[in-house]
Design a protein that fits this description.
The complex is a heterodimer of chains A (99) and B (710).
Chain A (H helix, E strand, L loop, with lengths): L43 H27 L6 H22 L1
Chain B lengths: L11 H30 L10 H13 L10 H35 L6 H31 L10 H28 L11 H7 L4 H25 L7 H11 L30 H9 L5 H4 L12 H15 L38 H5 L2 H6 L5 H5 L6 H15 L5 H13 L12 H6 L15 E4 L2 H5 L1 H16 L4 E3 L9 H5 L3 H18 L4 E3 L2 H10 L9 E3 H10 L15 E3 L13 H11 L2 E3 L27 H10 L5 E4 L2 H13 L7 E4 H12 L11
Parallel strand pairs in B: 1-2, 1-3, 3-4, 5-6, 5-7, 7-8
Helix pairs in contact in B: 1-7, 1-9, 2-8, 3-4, 4-5, 5-6, 5-7, 8-9, 9-11, 19-27, 23-24, 24-27
Classes of the chains: A mainly alpha (99), B mainly alpha (710).
Chain lengths: 99, 710
C-alpha cells in the first residue's frame, strides 16, 4: 500500500525473518533466548558484521581528519569528516536495530 | 580586507576532538531516531499518503513560516519560537560556511570567499540572528518560568535542559567572538556589532588571559553543542523532525470523520488495547509533541480539573512507547509526570516514574486511565490548536472502541444509552412511534405522507433531542415556523428517523453506530432528498461527513446556514431589531465550528435579526465546549467542576441578556447550568432558530413564538 511504512524497501533492513525462508527461524521477539536463527542473530559473523563495518568507517574517518589536522593535509579533513558522519550514523542505526 | 583566522587559538588536538565528537553526535542521533522509527513500525498500516504537494506545502509552512504556531492569541509564543528557530538555522548555516571555507574551498580549490564584502555581510547577519536567538530563548525562559502559566507548572527538567543548553551556546558564541576581537585587536571589530561592546569591555585585560578564556569558552561551546545534539532524540527537541513529519502525514480526508471499521461483522479485534493496535501514523503522533500545552488552553477537561490532559496523555503514551522499544528516555524524560500537570494539582514527588510502571504494563489502565478516556468531550479543541496536528480525538475514540466492543467496560450510564438506541432508535426510553408527535401538532408533514418527495426542497433532520426533549421541541417548532415563513417546501422523516448514531460512535460503539447509520441511509436513499437540513450539529456532522463512508451522500446544511441563505436570498423577511437593546452572546457549538468551520452563518443571522451579537473571549476555533459532546451528555459529570458552568460564567461576564446557540445539546447543558447558577431569570438560552422565530412574531402582531406541545 502506498504510504505504508512497511512498504517495500524500508530504510532499514527488517530484523524479522522472511516468510517461508528455511535459513530463518522464528522472529527475534519470540526467541529472545539467543536461539534465534534470523539473518541477524543466526550467524555470529553477520551478527556483528554491520556494526563492525560502521565502526571501521568511523575510525577511518577519524584517522583521516587526524592526519589532516596533524600534518596540515587539508584535503584529508573533509572526506574524513564525511566518513565520521556516515559511519557514526550507520553505527547508531545498526545498534538500534540490534538491541 | 576584513576576515578572520579560522580556528584561531585552537590547536590541532582540539580540531581532532571536534571531528571525533561528530561520530558521537551522529551515532546517538541515528540510534535515537532509529529506535523511534522502529517503534512506529509496530503500528498497523496507514495510508495512502496522497496529495504529496499539499502535504509538503503545509509541512514546510508549519516548519518555516510557523503557520500554526504564529497566529492570533499566540503572537508572543509564535515569535519566540520563530526567533529561536531562525536564529538556530542561520547560526548552523554560518558554521557550515566556515567549514566549507576551511575544509573544501581552501584545500581543494585554493580559493577563499570568507573575506571582504562577503565576510562583512556574513558577520552582520550572523550577529543579527545570534541576537534574535538569544532574545527568543530569554522569551521562552520567561514564558516557562516567569509567567506562571498553569499549564507549565512543574514542567521543569526537560525545558530547563533544552533552554539552558541553547542559551549557553548562544551566549558563548558571542563571548568567543568578543574574546577574539579583544585579543587580536581586530580592526573589523565593529561589524561584529553584538560582540563589539563586549570586546570593548574586555579590552583592558591582557592578551594571555583573553586567549586562555577563549580556549576554555571554545571547549565549553563545543561540548555544549555535542550535548545538545545528543539530547535531541531523547527529548522534546525530537519535534524538530517529528513535528513536520506528523503534519505531512496527517489525515487530509474528511477532517471531521472518525475512521470507519470496515466489514465490522468479520472483525475479531476492535479498537486499541495495546500500542501495536494503533496505526503507525498514530504512533508518530506520540513522538511529535513539543509540549507547548496549547491542547490544554481550551480543553474543557483540563480547565475543569478532570483527569484527562491531552498533552499528558500524548507524552505518557509516547514515553511508554519508547520504553517498549528500549529507548529509556522518551519525550517525558524519566518521569511519567514530566508532561505537565497531573489533575489540577501540582505533581507530587511520589508520582510514579516510568521505572515503577508495571512491566509489562497495560496501555489502558496502567498508562492511560479509563477515567481519562471517558472524560473526553471530543470537542477537538486540542486538535485545532496543536501546532503539529496531533490527532488526539481519534486516539481516544479508538481506545473507547476497545473498551466497549471488546472488554464491555464503560460507564454504567452508557448501558442505558446503548439499550435505548438499540430498542427505540433514540437515546431515551421514548418509543420510536412517538418521535413525530411534536410535528403532528404543528402540522408538519412526514416524508411517508408526501405524494411527491421529489418536490421537496429540503428534508428536515430533526434529531432525537428536538424530537423528544420538551425544551428542544421549541427549537424544532421555531425552525418549522421559519421554514414556513420562507415558503420552503419541507418534510421530516418522522417515525422513520432514528438517532444518527453520533453518541454511539463517539462512545466507542461503532457496531451500534453502523446499524443506526445504515438504517437511516437506506431510508434517506429511498427518498433521494435534494437537501437535508439539520438543527443538531452532531447529526449535521454525522450525515455530512460520516455517512459517505457507508454510502450515504447527501447535500447537508446546518439550520443556521439555511436561515442565512433564506435571509440573504430575500425569501425570509425578518425586520432588524434588537433584544432589549443588547445582542446575545454567541456560543460556538464544537461540531458546527471546529468540526465543520461554520462560524459566520450563525453570527450573520444574529447580526441581521437581533441587531448584533456579543463575542465571548473564547470563541470561534478557540470556543469552549458545553460539555455534552462525545456522548458526555449521557454520562454523569463526576470529576472536577461542571464544564457548562465554566462556559456559562464566561457568557454571564459579557453582560449580555442571554446566549444564542445552534445546538440542542448546548441548549440542554446551558438550561441545566443556568438553573444551577440561579441566573435563569436574567439570562436567556436561545437557539438561533428561536431568535429568528421571535423576530418574525414581533413583525406579525397577533402571532406568538412557538410553544412545545404538552
Amino acid at each position: 500500500m502506498a504510504g505504508e511504512l512497511r512498504a517495500a524497501d524500508p530504510p532499514f533492513p527488517s530484523t524479522q525473518p522472511a516468510a517461508g525462508g528455511t535459513l530463518l527461524g522464528p522472529s527475534c521477539a519470540e526467541r529472545s533466548d539467543g536461539q534465534c536463527q534470523c539473518r541477524y542473530h543466526g550467524l555470529s559473523v553477520t551478527k556483528w558484521l554491520e556494526p563492525a563495518l560502521a565502526a571501521l568507517t568511523t575510525l577511518i574517518g577519524i584517522a583521516l581528519t587526524t592526519a589532516g589536522a596533524l600534518i596540515h593535509a587539508g584535503p584529508a579533513v573533509a572526506p574524513g569528516a564525511l566518513l565520521i558522519l556516515v559511519g557514526g550514523g550507520w553505527l547508531g542505526n545498526a545498534l538500534a536495530r540490534r538491541t | 580586507m576584513p576576515t578572520r583566522p579560522i580556528a584561531w587559538n585552537v590547536g590541532e588536538v582540539a580540531i581532532i576532538v571536534m571531528y571525533a565528537l561528530v561520530a558521537v553526535q551522529a551515532l546517538v542521533l541515528a540510534y535515537g531516531f532509529s529506535k523511534r522509527y522502529l517503534a512506529w513500525q509496530h503500528g498497523r498500516p496507514y495510508g495512502p499518503i496522497d496529495q504529496i504537494g499539499k502535504r509538503l506545502k503545509e509541512a514546510l509552512q508549519v516548519a518555516f513560516i510557523h503557520k500554526r504556531l504564529l497566529r492570533p492569541g499566540y503572537v508572543y509564543a509564535g515569535l519566540m519560537h520563530l526567533f529561536i528557530f531562525y536564529g538556530f538555522i542561520v547560526l548552523f548555516i554560518g558554521t557550515i560556511i566556515v567549514l566549507l571555507e576551511a575544509d573544501i574551498a581552501r584545500p581543494y580549490f585554493g580559493i577563499s570567499f570568507y573575506q571582504g564584502a562577503f565576510y562583512v555581510a556574513y558577520k552582520l547577519i550572523i550577529n543579527f540572528f545570534g541576537l534574535l536567538f538569544v532574545i527568543g530563548l530569554l522569551m521562552a525562559l520567561w514564558r516557562r518560568y516567569g509567567q506562571h502559566l498553569p499549564k507549565f507548572r512543574r514542567n521543569l527538567s526537560d525545558d530547563a535542559i533544552v533552554l539552558g543548553i541553547l542559551l549557553f551556546l548562544g551566549l558563548t558564541g558571542f563571548l568567543l567572538q568578543a574574546l577574539r576581537l579583544a585579543a587580536t585587536r581586530d580592526e573589523a571589530a565593529p561589524i561584529h556589532w553584538v560582540s563589539y561592546p563586549i570586546a570593548l569591555a574586555l579590552a583592558g585585560i591582557n592578551t594571555d588571559a583573553l586567549q586562555a578564556a577563549h580556549a576554555v569558552t571554545w571547549w565549553s561551546h563545543m561540548l555544549a553543542n555535542t550535548a545538545l545534539l545528543v539530547y535531541i532524540p531523547v527529548s522534546k527537541l525530537a519535534h524538530i523532525f517529528t513535528g513536520p513529519a506528523n503534519v505531512f502525514m496527517r489525515a487530509t480526508d474528511a477532517r471531521a470523520a472518525l475512521p470507519l471499521i470496515a466489514n465490522i461483522e468479520e472483525q475479531e479485534h476492535f479498537g486499541v488495547a495495546k500500542l501495536d493496535d494503533f496505526n503507525w501514523k498514530q504512533l508518530l503522533n506520540f513522538d511529535a509533541c513539543m509540549r507547548c500545552g496549547r491542547c490544554l488552553d481550551f480543553c474543557p477537561t483540563f480547565n475543569t480539573g478532570k483527569p484527562l490532559k491531552p498533552r499528558q496523555l500524548i507524552v505518557e503514551v509516547g514515553a511508554y512507547m519508547n520504553r517498549q522499544e528500549g529507548l529509556r528516555a522518551g519525550p517525558a524524560g524519566l518521569r511519567l509526570t514530566e508532561g505537565g500537570v497531573k489533575g489540577s494539582e501540582l505533581v507530587h514527588a511520589d508520582e510514579p516514574s516510568l521505572a515503577q510502571v508495571p512491566n509489562p504494563a497495560e496501555l489502558i489502565g496502567d498508562i492511560v486511565s479509563e477515567d481519562e478516556l471517558w472524560d473526553c468531550t471530543t470537542c477537538r479543541a486540542c486538535m485545532e490548536q496543536c501546532p503539529v496536528r496531533i490527532e488526539h480525538v481519534p486516539l481516544i475514540v479508538e481506545m473507547r472502541r476497545n473498551l466497549v466492543l471488546e472488554q464491555s467496560k464503560f460507564p454504567q450510564e452508557l448501558t442505558m444509552l446503548f439499550n435505548n438506541l438499540e430498542r427505540n432508535g433514540n437515546p431515551y426510553s421514548f418509543p420510536a412511534s412517538t418521535r413525530a408527535e411534536w410535528a403532528a401538532a404543528a402540522g408538519v408533514q412526514e416524508l411517508s405522507e408526501v405524494d411527491d418527495p421529489g418536490s421537496l426542497e429540503v428534508v428536515y433532520w430533526v434529531g432525537c433531542m428536538s424530537s423528544f426533549d420538551a425544551r428542544n421541541q421549541k427549537v424544532a417548532l421555531a425552525l418549522t415556523q421559519v421554514l414556513k415563513a420562507a415558503n420552503v417546501k419541507f418534510a421530516i422523516l418522522g417515525k422513520e428517523e432514528t438517532c444518527s448514531g453520533d453518541p454511539a460512535r463517539r462512545a466507542g460503539n461503532e457496531y451500534l453506530y453502523q446499524i443506526l447509520a445504515q438504517g437511516n441511509i437506506e431510508r434517506l436513499n429511498q427518498y433521494q432528498p435534494k437537501r437535508v437540513v439539520a438543527s443538531c450539529p452532531h447529526c449535521f456532522n454525522t450525515l455530512k461527513n460520516e455517512y459517505p463512508q457507508l454510502g450515504g451522500n447527501y447535500s447537508v446544511v446546518h439550520h443556521s446556514e439555511l436561515i442565512k441563505e433564506l435571509i440573504d436570498g430575500g425569501r425570509l423577511k425578518v425586520p432588524p431589531g434588537t433584544l432589549d437593546g443588547h445582542g446575545l452572546a454567541y456560543h460556538d457549538p464544537c461540531y458546527l465550528g471546529r468540526y465543520n468551520e461554520v462560524y459566520d452563518a450563525p453570527r450573520s443571522v444574529l447580526d441581521q435579526v437581533d441587531g448584533g451579537h456579543v463575542e465571548m473571549p473564547r470563541c470561534r476555533d478557540k470556543g469552549f465546549c458545553c460539555g455534552a459532546g462525545g456522548a458526555r451528555a449521557f454520562m454523569e459529570e463526576k470529576r472536577g467542576t461542571r464544564i457548562s458552568h465554566n462556559r456559562l460564567n464566561e457568557a454571564l461576564e459579557t453582560n449580555a441578556p442571554g446566549v444564542a446557540v445552534a445546538c440542542p445539546f448546548c441548549v440542554t447543558m446551558f438550561e441545566d447550568g443556568i438553573r444551577a447558577l440561579n441566573a435563569e431569570e436574567r439570562f436567556a438560552i436561545k437557539d438561533i432558530a428561536e431568535v429568528v422565530a421571535e423576530a418574525l412574531s414581533r413583525a406579525q402582531p397577533g402571532s406568538s413564538a412557538p410553544a412545545a406541545p404538552g
